[in-house]
Amino acid sequence: MSVRGSRISWRSAAPLLVWIGLLLLPAPAGLSRNGWSYLALFAGVIAALVLEPLPPAAVGLIGVSVAAIFGHVAPKSADSVKWALSGFSDSTVWLIFGSLTFSLGYEKTGLGRRIALSLVRRMGGSTLGLGYAVALADLAIAPVTPSNTGRSAGVIYPIVCGIPPLYGSAPGPTARRIGAYLMWTAFAATAITSSMFLTALAPNLLAVGLMRRELGIEVDWSRWMIGVLPVGAILIGLLPLAVYLVYPPEIRSSPDVPIWAAAELRRMGSISAREVVMAILVLAAFLLWVLARDWIHPTATILAAIALMVIFRVLEWEEIVGNRAAWDTMVYFATLMALADGLNHVGVVKWAANGVIGPLAGRPPLLVLVVLAGFFFIVHYAFASLTAHTVVVLPAILAAGAAFPGMPIGVFALVMGYSIGLMGVLTPYATGPAPVYFGSGFITRREFWLLGLGFGILFLATLLGIGLPYLLLIDS
Q1: Under 8 Å CB-to-CB from 123, ≥6 apart: which residues?
Q2: Of 193, 226, 247, 335, which sits most exposed with the smallest number of CB within 10 A?
Q3: pLDDT tens, residue by residue, 93-124
Q4: Residue 2 — pLDDT band, cuts 50, 70, 90?
């Protein structure tokens, strides 16, 4: 009991020490005393988000409350409270909430599991085909699942876990028979799909909100998807084969898997009316996001879909109200949006951008773009959260890029946005599903780090080598 108490005390004290320690230091050149005070508070919040002495949403709420009380962003109390609550009026925050609620329908109806098992049954006769089935299953449910943890760890991982025992593959000496291949393919696939759709990863939506606030750029669902299409298609098409070649399974044929998947589908029974309604709503949402974006805001689309889910009893209202994860995430992102916006208000973003662009002054804009993209990607080794990375680093990177004459700012912003999901492949802690797949025991620590480095290089090289020229072409 005492050990646990000291651990909690340490995790609680460290963010306070970060805040107070920085607060006592003199403000650096180019930054006001108020800006430095706010940055000290912000650093304490980020430390708390990493150490988690409290739930992340509570940390964010405490952060904006302290900033509002001390008037860091706005000296007048009424304006300070208005700023503190500004995140809750942001359409992006409600789109995140709506998408998480929408994805609950996939889980409750079993539609996501049915799609994944159907693909495994049809394509799982060989180990390579099984790898493609796993990747395509993630791709199929990614557009309406903004939690890659819910999608990959919640839907894909349990299905993948059922396959290795069929071939006597378990963590340890037999891991490489088939289990290790499937685990890495599933994990790396979710990093790709997380970047392919705006609503496939909550930090994507956060990034779009920051682009709008920092640069005045509007990125909707279809623009995001069209811009990343060649990169996503190439990577998702190559991934199972690439893993098959560099991290080969010992078993190359898997005739028992389709039989197992068929048995699981029979256990689920015939498709239900709720699943049919859910599938129709998913298709309708896609069509409205792509074809009617100029007439119906994406957030309005997702809220209307939720209303229809209640009307047709796909979800009960009590399930929506009781969806703790969605409400908790909404508070988390609303407070982070406000805190990130505060960095701009107090001059921290401009100050940080000036520090970044100094060594790059006079360089060609495209070279600067590549350097900043590489820095943004590599620095994720220091983060255990894609959300925290986005909030801390992206505003300064966007401001730095915008300061260079001739920078194709729309292309620049999209490249940074697309890299967020892809960088989740780097480490065993890089994103929500990472600890789950690492914790399975099929992939050793050394292998996980080496695979993360190798596939991280592949993902970034594809984004910059193929995605960047394509974006420049369609933007011209």
Answers
A1: 129, 130, 132, 133, 136
A2: 226
A3: 887 788 778 878 877 888 878 888 888 888 88
A4: very low
Nearest to 386 by CA among 431, 426, 333, 337: 431
Query: Cβ distance 182 to 130 under 8 Å?
Result: yes
* Model pTM score: 0.81
Residue 33 above 60 pLDDT?
yes
Task: Extract the tokens encoding 175.
Answer: 């891991």
Identity of residue 172: G
Q: Helices 348-357 and 386-402: crossing angle, nearest 10°?
A: 70
- State the Cα–Cα distance between residues 234 and 423, nearest whole angstrom: 17
8 A C-beta contact, residue 65 and residue 85: no
Separation CA 431–CA 112 (nearest Å): 21
CA angle 290, 292, 298 (to 5 degrees): 75
CA–CA dist 435, 455 (Å, integer): 17
Instruction: Find all residues with CB under 8 Å of 462, minimum gap 6, and list them.
Output: 231, 234, 235
pLDDT at residue 456 tops 90 = yes
Give me the residue label for tokens 């995605």.
Answer: 467
pLDDT, residue 411, reads 96
386: nearest Cα among 204, 210, 232, 224: 204
Euclidean distance between CA atoms 111 and 278, whole angstroms: 8
Q: 384 and 424 in contact (C-beta within 8 Å)? A: no
